[in-house]
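Aim 2 progress update. The chain analyzed this quarter is reproduced below.
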Amino acid sequence: MKISTKLRYAARMLVLLSEKKEIMSTNDIAKEIDVSPMYLRVLANDLEKKGLIKSVRGAKGGYKLLKNPNNISIKDIADIHETLDLVPCLEEPKVCPFSNICKMRKFWLGLRNTLLEYLDKWSVKDISNL
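Predicted C-alpha cells:
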C-alpha cells in the first residue's frame, strides 16, 4: 500500500499553514515544502472546495486555513485524495464472484477501517506538534 503524493503534499501544506498562521502565497509554500507551485495550486483547489482553506486574492494574496487545525483530521485530507480501498472488491463487491463469502474481503475491510480510524485520530495540529 502506498499513500499518494497528493495526500502527502496536501497534508504538508495544511501543517505549514497551521504553523505560520498567516496568508501564504503558493510560491512561499512551495519553497517551504519543496513542491512545485503549479502542483500546489491543483491541491489547493481541491482543499478549498472541501472548505479546509481559503484563497485570498491580491498582491499579498495566497492561502490560509479556513478551519481550526484541531478540527482538520488527516482523514479529512485523505477523503479528498485517496480511496483507501486496498483491494477492488471493497468499493465494488461485484468485481469478485466470491465477495459475499470471501473471508479475505472481511479482513481487508477491517484493515481499511482500522486505517481510517487511525487517520481520523490525528489532526493537522497534532502533526504540527510532533
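The CA atoms of residues 14 and 34 lie 14 Å apart. The longest strand covers residues 53-56. These observations will guide the mutagenesis experiments scheduled for the next reporting period.
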